[in-house]
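Module 6 notes. Inverse folding takes a fixed backbone as the condition and produces residue identities as the prediction. Think of it as a translation problem where the source language is geometry and the target language is the twenty amino acids. Below is one complete input and output pair. Work through it position by position during the lab.
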């Protein structure tokens, strides 16, 4: 699996995409969805919630396990993907195309730059 180079990654297997100078879109990686198996439930935070980097923002449940979701950056939840909550199985077919939430933060670029590159994340996955 190759990971999109325009995304950044966390050791908890979330991806982040810088979509504006103040906003970052968040989802989970192919490695995460593959490890979980068929995803059957997704819980996301309410709009307006302030998250700190590495704070739990939700839960994803599969037929094999329940796993917490962690925010890759600090910011305020300005969008949550209600369509994905209604049909969480979409994560299994397109994990890097199905976003979970959008965070707004004043220092989006510097927080984004602090995350792992695709190459660094690929090396992490190989070491697991």
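Target side of the pair, the amino acids:
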């Amino acid at each position: 699996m190759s990971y999109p180079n325009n995304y950044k990654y966390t050791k908890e297997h979330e991806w982040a995409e810088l979509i504006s100078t103040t906003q970052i879109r968040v989802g989970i990686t192919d490695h995460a969805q593959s490890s979980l198996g068929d995803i059957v439930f997704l819980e996301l935070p309410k709009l307006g919630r302030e998250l700190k980097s590495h704070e739990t923002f939700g839960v994803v449940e599969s037929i094999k396990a329940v796993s917490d979701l962690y925010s890759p950056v600090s910011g305020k939840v300005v969008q949550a993907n209600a369509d994905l909550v209604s049909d969480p199985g979409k994560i299994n077919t397109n994990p890097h195309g199905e976003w979970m939430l959008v965070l707004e933060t004043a220092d989006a670029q510097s927080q984004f730059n602090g995350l792992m590159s695709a190459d660094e994340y690929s090396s992490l996955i190989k070491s697991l």
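Reference fact for the lab report: The chain is about 25% helix and 35% strand.
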